[in-house]
Amino acid sequence: MSGWKAAIYLLCLLASAGCAALLVRSYLQTGGRLLLWSAGCFLLLALNNLLVVMDLLVIESVDFLVFRRLTSLAAVSMLILGFVWEAEES
Predict the structure, then answer these.
(1) Cα separation, 38 vs 60, whole angstroms
(2) What's this model's pTM, rounded to 2 decimal places?
(3) Contact by Cβ (8 Å): 38, 76
(4) Which of these, 10, 25, 44, 56, is most buried using a 10 Å CB contact count?
């Protein structure tokens, strides 16, 4: 695998983990529940990116495709659930 691809995968992992950390920090300061749902989504996206790194860079003999798709589905589902939950209470 080329060095550029590895760098891009690692930067995606760092970006999603950084977004999750900032969202958690904002949630702890303000208590906005939509921030909590968004933080959960980005935590799952960070896990998904970690699985991509593990799958394509570290452990190439094991296929993590099913787990990667499940974590991305869970992340999007969590965000949609948060939007619906907040819209019903408004």
Answers:
(1) 31
(2) 0.90
(3) no
(4) 44
